[in-house]
C-alpha cells in the first residue's frame, strides 16, 4: 500500500508555512514555528507575532529543555523507558516520546529530532510480534501489552506518509494493517442486548474491557484510518457504543462495563478526545442529535472536575487527553484552558527539563507535558481540528 499522500501534503504545507513565517531554514528549528536554542540562536528578539496564539518565550524554552531531555535519555536502540534510561513499558514510552517530538514538527525524514523519531519508529517496528489474529505492535508480550500496542499504532500512523524510505513505508503499512486486525479481533462483546458494543482489556484474547485501554485502541484505529489503513468501521462504531454504555447518570464514564462503580475523571477526559477523533461531537463543537447530547453531558462532567489546580489521580494522563479535547473543541474553552495548563506545567518542570508524571516516570510525564504544550503548533494529524 502506498502512503497517504494527503497527510504527507498537509504536513509539508504546515512546515512550509512555519519556515516562511520564521524566514529561516527548516533545520534550525527547536520546535515547529520557533527557531531557537538548539541551533544556538537567541529567541529573545523573536517577534510575538511569530509565536502561535497563547504561546510565549518561556513556553518555547520549556519545550526546548524537555525535547533535549528526551533526546538525552533515548537508548541507542530507539526505545525509551518510563523513567529516563531505566524503567518499564518500552512500547508505550517509545510511542509517547516519538509523538512528543513529532508534535514539535519533526518527522522520521526531517526536522531537528528526525534521528530520534526514526529510531523510535524502527524500534517499534522491530518489536512487533505476530499473533494469531494479527500483530501486537511495540511489545514482546507482558500483562499489559495492549497499552503499548495502542500507543504504538497511534505513533506509527503519524509516521506513515511522512517517511521518505519506500521500504520502510511498506513495513509501516503492513504493521498497521496487521495491528488494526489484532485490535479488531481483541474487542470484547457485550452481547446483542447492547448492540454488541465492545471495549478492550490489557491483553489480546481476554474478552474483557477497561476504559483506559479502550480509549488507546479507539484513538489508534482512528489514526490508522486517517492514514489510509483499512479499518473496519463496525469496530469503531462498537467502541463508541461501548463508551456510551459506560456513561453514568452524572455524564462521566465508569471504569468498565463489568465493574462500573463511579465515574472516573481521567477516563472521561480521554473519552471526550476519542469521541472527537471518531467524529462524534457535542452540540457546541458542531454535533447534533442524541449522540451530541451524550458528548455534551460528558464535556460538562469534565469541566466540573478538570481544573488544573485540582489534585487528582492520573493527573498527567487526564490532562493529556483533556488538552486534546479542548484543542479540538476550540473557541473560548480552549482559550481559557491552555494558558492555565501551560502555566501549571511550566511550574512543575524539573531543572533537567523533565516532568515526572503520575509517579510513572520522567519519560512518561515529559512526553505528555510536551504534547500538551505543543498542541498550538497543530502538526499531528490525529489532533487536528
- What radius of gyration results from the CA coordinates? 20 Å
Number of strands: 4
Which residues form runs of ≥5 with pLDDT under 50?
16-42
CATH class descriptor: Mainly Alpha
Number of domains: 1
Number of helices in the DSSP assignment: 13
Give the helices and strands as they follow along the chain.
HEEHHHEEHHHHHHHHH
Outline, from the CA principal axes?
globular
CATH fold title: Glycosyltransferase
- How confident is the prediction overall: mean pLDDT? 86
Give the SSE map:
Elements: H1 5-22, E1 29-31, E2 34-35, H2 57-73, H3 90-102, H4 114-127, E3 129-131, E4 134-136, H5 145-159, H6 166-185, H7 211-226, H8 233-245, H9 265-277, H10 289-303, H11 315-329, H12 331-348, H13 362-373
Antiparallel strand pairs: 1-2, 3-4
Fold and architecture overview:
- This protein is mainly alpha-helical.
- It has helices at 5-22, 57-73, 90-102, 114-127, 145-159, 166-185, 211-226, 233-245, 265-277, 289-303, 315-329, 331-348, 362-373; strands at residues 29-31, 34-35, 129-131, 134-136.
- The protein has one domain (5-383): Glycosyltransferase (Alpha/alpha barrel), CATH 1.50.10.
- The strands form two sheets. The chain has a two-stranded antiparallel sheet.
- Strand 3 (129-131) and strand 4 form a beta hairpin.
- Helix 6 (166-185) packs across helix 7 and helix 11 (315-329) runs antiparallel to helix 12.
- The longest helix is centred in the middle third of the chain and has 20 residues, at 166-185.
- It starts with a helix and ends in a 12-residue tail after the last helix.
- The relative contact order is 0.13.
- Mean pLDDT is 86; it is low at 16-42.
Amino acid at each position: 500500500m502506498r502512503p497517504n499522500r494527503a497527510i504527507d501534503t498537509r504536513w509539508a504545507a504546515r512546515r512550509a508555512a512555519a519556515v516562511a513565517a520564521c524566514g529561516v531554514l527548516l533545520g534550525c528549528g527547536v520546535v515547529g514555528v520557533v527557531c531557537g536554542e538548539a541551533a544556538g540562536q537567541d529567541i529573545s528578539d523573536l517577534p510575538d507575532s511569530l509565536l502561535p496564539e497563547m504561546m510565549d518565550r518561556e513556553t518555547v524554552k520549556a519545550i526546548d529543555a524537555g525535547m533535549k531531555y528526551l533526546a538525552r535519555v533515548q537508548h541507542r536502540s530507539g526505545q525509551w523507558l518510563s523513567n529516563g534510561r531505566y524503567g518499564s513499558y518500552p512500547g508505550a514510552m517509545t510511542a509517547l516520546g516519538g509523538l512528543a517530538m513529532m508534535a514539535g514538527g519533526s518527522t522520521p525524514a526531517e526536522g531537528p529530532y528526525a534521528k530520534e523519531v526514526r529510531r523510535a519508529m524502527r524500534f517499534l517496528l522491530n518489536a512487533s510480534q505476530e499473533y494469531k489474529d494479527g500483530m501486537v505492535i511495540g511489545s514482546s508480550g507482558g500483562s499489559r501489552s495492549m497499552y503499548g500496542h495502542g500507543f504504538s499504532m497511534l505513533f506509527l500512523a503519524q509516521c506513515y506518509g511522512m517517511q521518505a524510505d519506500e521500504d520502510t513505508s511498506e513495513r509501516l503499512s503492513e504493521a498497521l494493517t496487521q495491528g488494526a486486525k489484532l485490535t479488531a479481533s481483541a474487542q470484547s462483546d457485550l452481547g446483542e442486548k447492547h448492540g454488541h458494543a465492545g471495549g478492550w482489556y490489557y491483553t489480546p484474547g481476554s474478552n474483557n474491557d477497561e476504559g483506559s485501554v479502550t480509549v488507546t485502541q479507539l484513538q489508534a484505529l482512528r489514526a490508522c484510518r486517517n492514514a489510509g489503513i483499512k479499518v473496519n468501521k463496525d469496530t469503531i462504531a462498537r467502541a463508541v457504543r461501548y463508551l456510551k454504555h459506560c456513561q453514568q447518570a452524572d455524564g462521566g464514564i465508569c471504569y468498565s462495563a463489568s465493574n462500573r462503580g463511579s465515574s472516573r475523571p481521567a477516563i472521561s477526559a480521554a473519552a471526550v478526545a476519542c469521541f472527537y477523533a471518531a467524529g462524534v461531537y457535542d452540540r457546541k463543537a458542531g454535533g447534533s442529535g442524541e449522540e451530541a447530547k451524550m458528548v455534551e453531558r460528558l464535556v460538562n462532567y469534565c469541566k466540573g472536575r478538570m481544573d488544573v489546580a485540582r489534585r487528582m489521580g492520573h493527573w498527567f494522563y487526564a490532562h493529556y487527553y483533556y488538552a486534546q479535547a479542548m484543542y479540538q473543541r476550540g473557541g473560548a474553552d480552549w482559550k481559557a484552558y491552555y494558558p492555565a495548563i501551560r502555566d501549571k506545567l511550566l511550574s512543575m518542570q524539573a531543572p533537567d527539563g523533565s516532568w515526572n508524571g503520575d509517579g510513572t516516570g520522567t519519560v512518561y510525564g515529559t512526553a505528555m507535558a510536551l504534547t500538551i504544550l505543543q498542541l498550538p503548533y497543530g502538526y499531528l494529524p490525529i489532533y487536528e481540528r
